[in-house]
Specification:
single chain, about 30% strand
Length: about 210
C-alpha cells in the first residue's frame, strides 16, 4: 500500500510538471490569439477564452493541492519532533499508557494551543522507542469546530469518510474525526511505522485466532 501511494504521488507530481511545462510553452501563442480583435484571424475567440480559463484553473488548483498535501511529508512530524525520532529524557515525557512495544506519553511542558484552537490533551505514541504518531484531543464546541478548518487551510480539502476527514501523503497520514459537535480527535501518524506496527501485531492476532479455533 505504501509503495503504491508513493508511486501514485510521484506520478501525479510528474503529470503536473509535464502539464505546467506544456502549458507555459503554448501560453504565448494562446495569449496572442486572444489579444487579436474579433474577425482578424481568431474566429473562435469565446471558445479560446473559455479554454484558457479552464487551463489556468487546472494549472493553479491541481499542483496547489499536491503541494498542500506534500507539506505533511515535508514536516514529517509534530512541533519539530520528527517521526522516527528516538525516545529520550530531553523530551520531558510522562508515560500514560504502556502496551509493550507501543507506549503513549504526554509532554510535561506541553503547549495545548494548536493554531486557532486549544486541545484538551495531546498524546505522543512511540513504537519500539521511535516516535510514530500524535493524537490531539479537542473538547468544547468552540474549539472542536475550528479543528478541521485549521488543517484544511494547511493541507487543502481532505477525503471525507463517514465522520472523518483524511489527508495522506507518501510518508504521513492525517485524520480528523468529529465524534460530536463538541469533540474532535486529530491523529497524525508515520505510514512506515504504522506498517511496522501492523506487521508486529499480525502474528499475535493469528495466534489468538488459532487458540480460539481449538
Amino acid at each position: 500500500m505504501l509503495n503504491f501511494e508513493r508511486r501514485r504521488g510521484w506520478g501525479m507530481r510528474r503529470l503536473h510538471q509535464i502539464f505546467s511545462l506544456h502549458f507555459m510553452a503554448i501560453l504565448p501563442s494562446l495569449a496572442q490569439r486572444l489579444l487579436l480583435p474579433r474577425g482578424t484571424g481568431c474566429p473562435s475567440f469565446p471558445c479560446m477564452k473559455l479554454l484558457l480559463a479552464s487551463l489556468l484553473c487546472l494549472l493553479l488548483t491541481l499542483p496547489a493541492r499536491a503541494q498542500s498535501i506534500a507539506r505533511l511529508d515535508v514536516a514529517n512530524g509534530f512541533r519539530g519532533l520528527t517521526f522516527g525520532s528516538p525516545l529520550t529524557e530531553a523530551l520531558h515525557l510522562n508515560l500514560v499508557q504502556d502496551k509493550g512495544d507501543v507506549k503513549i506519553y504526554e509532554r510535561l511542558d506541553e503547549q495545548l494551543r494548536v493554531g486557532s484552537f486549544t486541545a484538551a490533551r495531546i498524546h505522543y505514541k512511540f513504537f519500539r522507542g521511535q516516535f510514530a504518531a500524535v493524537t490531539i484531543i479537542v473538547k468544547g464546541a468552540a474549539d472542536a469546530g475550528k479543528v478541521r478548518p485549521t488543517f484544511e487551510s494547511l493541507y487543502g480539502p481532505g477525503r471525507l469518510e463517514g465522520f472523518s476527514c483524511k489527508w495522506q501523503g507518501a510518508l504521513v497520514a492525517l485524520s480528523c474525526a468529529s465524534l460530536s459537535s463538541d469533540q474532535a480527535i486529530l491523529a497524525m501518524s508515520s505510514l512506515p511505522l504504522a506498517a511496522q506496527m501492523q506487521q508486529a501485531q499480525a502474528p499475535t492476532s493469528t495466534t489468538k485466532l488459532k487458540v480460539k479455533q481449538k
